[in-house]
Design a protein that fits this description.
The chain contains 14 helices and 15 strands. By secondary structure, the chain is of the alpha/beta class. The protein has two domains: 71 residues, Beta-grasp domain (Ubiquitin-like (UB roll)); 276 residues, HUPs (Rossmann fold), CATH 3.40.50.620. The protein has a five-stranded parallel sheet, sandwiched between helices. The protein has a four-stranded antiparallel sheet with strand order 1-6-3-4. Strands 2-5 form a two-stranded antiparallel sheet. Helix 9 crosses helix 12. The protein starts with a strand and ends with a helix. Bound molecules: zinc ion (2 copies). One zinc ion (ZN) binds next to helix 3.
């Protein structure tokens, strides 16, 4: 969205006056990325980039709390260059170079703290072509320089014409540039159906899509003899999942989030190197690394509960910076507690009678879903 500014205005004020949540957009002034604390002058070209389809609207209100007090700095906190981002959690303005440094340092710290990567491992990444997997692909291919491991990109075509074909094109381009070997799979070939077909019969498409995608990722990762699958989940995703668990009253799912209740060698371990980074910072990193944002969105994602939760959390983060990270930490603590309290002796992993994938019931969730549809 492009705006011509008629008089001098601070970007935070501009966003709030339009009812736009700063937490869910990037802003450029005269084509350069700018922190929201910056001011736009008369005649400046201001562009607001919504990195998720629908404008995340706040009810129009006056600036208050954190943003009112946040003072703009003309230079980066660490050097004299112009800042491109403001990080409310650290009350810090950073230039391009220092933002990229901090981003990569944070990912390395997460990777070390959770022992996610080891030398010479074969690591798969689910690459969809969106900004999150683009950022993950970039950051891991950079870490690869100091800690040698092999990277493989796994791209899944769910069969959403006009949307997925474009993002797959993006994904292929990036993998080539970064010299990462890419493997393409499709719902049609692996499951005998596409999301478009499922949409004709079912409403809660996001859960169908998620279950089938996970099943393909796991079985293909095993086929490729991968040690781990890296998922581009960010801090926002984790805070949303935590809230969704509460809203849906699913404590067992909560316990399974980081590691399965019963260990099974057929389940390829999943790692989340971006788990400590906000979606907004990932969008900033992706932008600085040349990701092309477009207004395309998954046409089927409109009614999910996750979207409502996402909106509320963005609103809370905008008013009370640090909310998402506090929710995610609480989620970690709860997961450990639930994990320890579950009697695991009676739990066992079976094999799905249809596809042979590991499953807690006779039929895995993927096959159960496919039986309902086909
Ligand atoms: Zn700097
Ligand atoms: Zn199955």
């Amino acid at each position: 969205m492009e705006i011509a500014v008629s008089s001098e205005i601070r970007l935070t004020e501009l966003l709030h006056s339009m009812g736009i949540c700063a937490e869910a957009v990037l802003v450029t002034v005269n084509d350069e990325l700018a922190p929201e604390t910056a001011t736009a002058k008369k005649g400046d070209k201001v562009e607001i980039i919504f990195y998720k389809h629908v404008p995340p609207l706040l009810s129009q209100q006056n600036l208050r709390g954190h943003w009112k007090k946040a003072k703009h700095r003309k230079s980066c906190d660490r050097c004299k260059s112009k800042p491109v981002a403001y990080l409310p959690n650290f009350r810090s303005h950073l230039c391009r170079k220092h933002f990229l440094n901090l981003f990569e340092k944070t990912v390395k710290k997460t990777v070390r703290a959770h022992r996610m990567l080891n030398k010479n491992e074969r690591i798969g990444i689910g690459v969809s072509g969106g900004k999150d997997s683009f950022a993950l692909l970039h950051v891991l291919s950079r870490i690869r320089k100091s800690l040698p491991f092999e990277l493989f990109a796994l791209t899944i075509d769910e069969g959403i014409p006009g949307y997925r074909d474009k993002t797959i094109e993006n994904a292929c381009k990036r993998c080539k540039e970064l010299e990462v070997k890419q493997h393409l799979y499709s719902f049609q070939e692996e499951c005998g159906t596409t999301i478009m077909d499922i949409a004709k019969k079912k409403e809660n498409l996001c859960s169908y899509c998620g279950v089938l995608r996970r099943r393909i990722l796991n079985s293909k990762a095993r086929e490729l003899k991968l040690d781990k699958i890296a998922i581009a989940h960010n801090l926002d995703d984790i805070a949303q999942t935590a809230m969704l668990n509460m809203i849906r009253n699913e404590p067992l799912r909560l316990a399974r989030f980081n590691s399965p209740l019963v260990a099974d060698s057929r389940m390829v371990p999943r790692i989340r190197p971006l788990r400590d980074i906000r979606e907004k910072e990932i969008a900033t990193y992706a932008f600085l690394m040349g990701h092309e944002f477009n207004s395309l969105c998954c046409p089927y994602s409109k009614n999910s509960l996750r979207r409502a939760v996402r909106h509320e959390l963005n609103f809370l983060e905008d008013q009370y910076p640090g909310t998402k990270s506090r929710i995610a930490s609480g989620f970690d603590t709860l997961q450990d507690m639930v994990h320890k309290s579950i009697q695991k002796e009676n739990l066992s992993m079976k094999s799905c009678s249809e596809c042979g994938e590991p499953s807690s019931a006779n039929l895995c969730m993927g096959c159960k879903m496919l039986k309902e549809i086909i």
